[in-house]
Amino acid sequence: MISRLTIFQNLCKKCINNKRYYSNGNNFLKNNTTNIVNRQEDPPKLSLEKDTIYSLASGVGKSGVAVIRVSGSQSKEVLKGLVNKKESEFKPRYATIGTFFHPLTKEAIDKGMFIYFKSPHSFTGEDVVEFHIHGGRAVIHDTLDAISSIGGTRTSQPGEFTKRAFDNGKMDLSEVEGLADLIDSQTHHQRKIAFNQMQGSISRFYYQLREDLIRSSAYMEAYIDFGEDAELDPEIVEQSKNRIIGIRDRIQSHLNDGKRGERLRQGAQVTILGPPNAGKSSLINLLTNRKVSIVSPIPGTTRDIIEAMLDIGGYPVIIGDTAGIRQSSDTIELEGVQMAKERSETSDLSLCVLDASQLIEQQTSNSQLDNELLNIINSNTIFIFNKMDIINESPLKKEIWGRKKLEILDNIVKHVNETRKHIDKVYGKDSIQSVEISCIDNMNIRQLLDYLQKSLENLFECQEQDSPLLTRMRYKEALINCVESLDRYLYFHDSDIVIASEELRSAIKSIGEITHSSNIDDLLDIIFKDFCIGK
Ligand SMILES: Nc1nc2c(ncn2[C@@H]2O[C@H](COP(=O)(O)OP(=O)(O)OP(=O)(O)O)[C@@H](O)[C@H]2O)c(=O)[nH]1
Ligand SMILES: [Mg+2]
């Protein structure tokens, strides 16, 4: 006897067939005559009728080797025009040495290498030819000129090769964004995350979630369409609800990744703060190895936030020097102090620079660390005692400093435990990270960088290895919309199954936006705007 579950599963299959879902290998898609999902209606068509585009794909300027890339239906004609070889010698994906001639003047331009990629097995999905030539300006110029003399060719727009790859279904949106990030990446970890994204780590994750949702939706639709006639057990709908709760929770925990992905893509924010004249600007100059901020003995020199990019152990960091925190009647300085506080509050890490040589002179240990400064300190603050060269010059000063430092640390512990404003645990003296440095002598700068690297490792540490990092706000927004729709689906599930299933469809649409947005043209313009010409 056939069980009810089997009948139901058959009905689901029927439902899927009726509504023309199809699978593209990763993903279930559905014809837009019904209602689910987005514009993934038909398999992509190759854009073979377009102009053939060409441009220098390697960097601008003199170099040993330059690569010129050609893509489009005329690629083979370009090759025939420039290379004195038979068509049978254009073996796809083989590097061949040849002399390149100008088709009009017949003059030899250069001797190099060419590779022919036959559609659809190329980056763009079109016929592609790459010329590897010597990277002199005149060689590049004359080769480009030779290509332009072949009919139906034109120079490419920024990102046009990638756009064609996207149009021809070679890459989805998140993979294109991964490629853009890979080209932009400046540090080891940025490159790693961008490369994984370009290789489809994000796409696979979202395709899987979307496919799971579509399966559950198909069960519900089958129930709505055939449930009563077939006297189906409502328990089956209940089971798909439980699966959807599981998917919702997975998306939510993925959303709670603490901005790690965005930080890694854009750089962690580190703020240098402290009282005036402590050596904040000297420190940023030392860490960046250039003069980004003015250093002077006059307290209150820095007013604005001065930012610089750093690579610390492969992690990108946007470090900011700020105005010294103090009471002032100068409104411009006060504005700077306010900006310093705000930046520190939104920062991932703060470096609180104090002048150790001043601290030992003072009776009260907290005169430099007044309440205004103490209030901004949080658990991600590293204390830096600067100007240790002055202390180290005398054994007496060193001895006084030993006691003073303990007093200061006690004071900080007391203050943060009393206010506990930003702290989620009781602060012990050991939990305060502090380094003694000298910007003049370069003392302990390596140790400071090690501290910073460890803190960044904690910050970027991936607790949930099976889900990729959320690298863009766009993904986050789509996922928030998805979770909201799923919450509404759960709300209506018991009272109105039809509205609930509508919500499920809109959740599926939201998650699909990540890889195939419905605002595709606007989005592509934004993504490709930043691409270089030959990509
Ligand atoms: N002896 C000694 N002097 C230092 C050290 N670091 C900085 N200085 C000096 O301290 C003075 C102030 O340095 P800055 O880097 O401008 O201090 P700042 O904290 O940016 O000061 P504001 O911008 O006014 O808040 C300058 O004269 C520096 O040369 C150090 O490690 N040892
Ligand atoms: Mg300064």
Automatic annotation (TrEMBL):
A Pfam family matched in the record: MnmE_helical
Membrane-traversing stretches: none
Domain of life: Eukaryota
GO cellular component, one term: mitochondrion
Subcellular localization(s) per the UniProt record: Mitochondrion
Domain annotation TrmE-type G: ranges: 267-457
Gene Ontology biological-process entries: tRNA methylation; tRNA wobble uridine modification
Main location: mitochondrion
Record keywords: GTP-binding, Nucleotide-binding, tRNA processing
Gene Ontology molecular function terms on file: GTP binding; GTPase activity
Family from the record: Belongs to the TRAFAC class TrmE-Era-EngA-EngB-Septin-like GTPase superfamily. TrmE GTPase family.
Record-given protein name: GTP-binding protein 3
